[in-house]
Amino acid sequence: MNRSSRIFPTPIELAEAFALDLVNLIKKAEQKQSPVMVALSGGNTPKLLFSVLADKYTKSVNWSFIHFFWGDERCVPSDDPESNYGMTSSLLLNKIIIPENNIHRIRGEDDPEKEALRYSEEIMNNTRSCYELPLFDLIILGLGDDGHTASIFPENMGLMDSGRVCEVAVHPVSGQKRVTITGKVINNADAITFLVTGHTKAHIVEDIFKNRKTAAYFPAFHINSSHGKVLWLLDKNAGEFVH
Ligand code: 6PG
Q: Which residue's CA is the closest to the ligand 1 atom numbered 5?
């Protein structure tokens, strides 16, 4: 298991450190003249990251060397407060100069099943592939209070082994439909980084890092890149029990 962690005193220090890592990844891509393919997480945790990128790096980065995808999206229109794309646009995308073709959003407003198929093709057509699966340079993930990641929930662990690139998922509490990339695609990435903050995640993080039996119930436990590395960036609260 190639899981490692870095613990930061506060969420803002975590966001600033990872923003710099991301900027350096884009600068390396520019040197190689080959854009990086990055899948973003949704929810609240990445908001600080996007704000730091927009505050500090709008002008000093050549954003044409990164393509943004999403690991999952809520099946809502992009102007809905729930939209991961909408949130990313307002905090970051609307503040940087980036070619439209570099933004690969999931169309939450469309029929979920059709969109899962369409987005699978969009990913396949725009990324390298390895073992016939799309290969992302980096996938950024969050951790839910129930151990889910992307929109792979414990109630639908089968999505970890799906043969499809994207599937339709249903939030177990709200019933909200989601389009999500699947476990094999995530584990095929060159690099996977979890961004996790807050006390509510601390016990799940502990179970995962101590390989406890209970951790097998969490989809996030089963994220281990087949040929890359899995880095967990934690603030002090989320990493309270990880040494
Ligand atoms: C989403 C996510 C989801 C998220 C976790 C953590 O669309 O909600 O991609 O996997 O990362 O639920 O969410 P918070 O960052 O809000 O705790």
A: 144
Domains detected in the chain: 3-235 (3.40.50.1360)
CB atoms within 10 A of CB 174: 10
- At 204, list the tokens: 């799940």
What is the distance in A from the centroid of ligand 1 to the CA of 105? Answer: 16
pLDDT in tens, 103-121: 999 999 999 999 999 999 9
Q: Is 80 exposed, middle or buried (0-12, 13-18, 19+ CB in 10 A)?
A: middle
Which pTM value belongs to this model? Answer: 0.98
Mutate to test the pocket of ligand 1, among 45, 80, 233 (most ligand atoms within 8 A of CB): 45
Residue 67: closest CA among 115, 136, 116: 136
pLDDT digits (tens, 9 = 90+) for 169-217: 999 999 999 999 999 999 999 999 999 999 999 999 999 999 999 999 9
Residue 36 CB contacts under 8 Å (≥ 6 apart), including other chains: 25, 26, 29, 65, 66, 67, 137, 138
Distance 7 CA to ligand 1 centre (A): 19
Tell me the CA–centroid distance for residue 118 and ligand 1, in Å. 23
Cα torsion angle, 196, 198, 204, 206, sign: positive
pLDDT at 23 over 80: yes
